[in-house]
Structures are given as structure tokens and as C-alpha cells.
Amino acid sequence: GDSVTQMEGPVTLSEEACLTINCTYTATGYPSLFWYVQYPGEGLQLLLKATKADDKGSNKGFEATYRKETTSFHLEKGSVQVSDSAVYFCALSEGGSYIPTFGRGTSLIVHP
Amino acid sequence: GAGVSQSPSNKVTEKGKDVELRCDPISGHTALYWYRQSLGQGLEFLIYFQGNSAPDKSGLPSDRFSAERTGGSVSTLTIQRTQQEDSAVYLCASSPGRRGPSGANVLTFGAGSRLTVL
Questions:
Q1: Which of B107, B109, B113, B114 to mutate to test the interface with A (most CBs of A within 10 A)?
Q2: Which residues pair with A58 in a beta bridge?
Q3: Is the peptide bond between A10 and the residue preceding it cis, with omega within 30 degrees of 0?
Q4: How far apart are CA B4 and CA B21, in angstroms?
Q5: CB-based contact (8 Å) between A98 and chain B?
Q6: What average pLDDT does range B39-63 have in this prediction?
Q7: pLDDT at B1
Q8: In which element (H, E) is residue B34 found?
Q9: Mean pLDDT for all residues in chain A
């Protein structure tokens, strides 16, 4: 079945550091890929998405590129802020299913 | 409504009691999901409703768990004879039930109901 694997956290960074959170997936078809973010005390919200190979999703300075050859969708940001502290979830949704599969989440802590 | 509303936000109960968790999805969203978020376990799919179709219950962990969706809108997740391992945050999400212009099905989540079973 489908699965999503994320790097384990927590990831602890200083403000303005570069961020990469790795995400790889296993799917039978050609899924859409997502990053959701969960700020403290809130529900998950969509951060960015990509629906086909080589697409780059971007939002709020975050980027991720759909890499079919490596089945990856790594999340990157060039300069993190304290306000980026949250839990980040990678997810996929196969074309024939409306039920997304989520990774375990990666906690990001950014210190001033 | 403007977003997905869940209640209660926190529930503490004793082992063996039944609990009901409520979800009010975004108006017009035909798809509704329940997930469970346990510490260190990520999001576990529980159940999916789409319009008037039979729900996909494949993620329910035991027959103590059930859910219904009345009138295609509000949903209630019921846990009978709660156990300590049921302690988790229960997240509800809704979506339009069709793929958007980009071809993606995007979910909107509520803030969750935190359940603690003593």
C-alpha cells in the first residue's frame, strides 16, 4: 500500500538557518503530494502541494519539488523564522482515492 | 461555516465510559474524514464519508469505534467503553469531494478534540 516516510524530529535550528525536511513515498500510481503544517494548538493546514513530476510547490518561503525518480518531496526553506516552529506533515493522495496518507510528522523548533 | 469546528476541544473521561466527539464541516463540503493523532504516531486514518455513499470504515481500530454523518453535514465519532490507549487527539477534516483545478484533493482540518482516558 501507499506510505510516506519523513525524517524523525525534532529538528532544532537557529533563526535564519536553512531547513530541509526529507520526505519519501511509496505509491502504485502517480499521486499528488502535499506538505501540511500544524502550528501549536491548531489543526493541520495545507502549506504547499504538487500534482505531477517536476512540479515545484511553494508558499511562505517554503518549497518542495516532486521528484518521481527518487520518489521524494523534500521541504526546504532558505531562512527559517521563530514563527515557523510547528509540526510538518508530508502526505500523498493517489489518483483513484480521496483518502490521503500522511507521514508521522516532523517537529521543527526555531530558536531566536 | 468558515472552517471546520470540533467539540469538545478537550475531554477527560474514565476508562469504560462512552464518549462522543462532534465535527461540523465546512458548508458545502461533501467529504468528511476522521483521523487520530497519537504522540509519535502521526495521523491514523479512521473513517471517510463522501456524500450519500457508504462510508469507508477501513481505518476504525475496533468495533468500539463508530461514526455517523447526519444530513450530509455534522458528524459524530463515538467511542464505546473507552480504554487508556484511546487517548489521543481526534482530528476531523472536510474537503469539497472533488479535485480542484490543480487536480488535488485538499483537506481542511479542525483544531481537534483531545481525549484523555484515565
A1: B107
A2: A63
A3: yes
A4: 13
A5: yes
A6: 90
A7: 54
A8: strand B31-38
A9: 94
> In sequence order, what DSSP letters do the residues of A9-48 get, joined into one string?
S-EEEETT--EEE-EEEE-SS--EEEEEEE-TTS-EEEEE
Q: Report which secondary-structure segment, H or E, holds A72.
A: none
d(CA B35, CA B33): 7
Question: Which cell is A11 given?
Answer: 529538528
Q: What are the grid coordinates assigned to A73, written together?
A: 518531496
Cβ-nearest to A44 among B97, B102, B109 = B109
C-alpha cell belonging to residue A82: 521563530
**Full 3-state SS string of B49-113:** EECCCCCECCCCCCCCEEEEECCCCCEEEEECCCCHHHCEEEEEEEECCCCCCCCCCCCEECCCE
- Per residue in A36-72, pLDDT (tens digit) is 999 988 889 999 999 999 999 999 999 999 999 999 9
Q: Residues near B71 by Cβ (< 8 Å), separated by ≥ 6? A: none
Would the CB atoms of B102 and A51 count as touching at under 8 Å?
yes
List all residues 6 or more positions away from B45 whose beta carbon is below 8 Å from its beta carbon. Answer: A99, A101, B33, B35, B58, B59
Hunting for cell 455513499 — which residue is that? Answer: B53
A46 touches chain B (CB under 8 A): yes
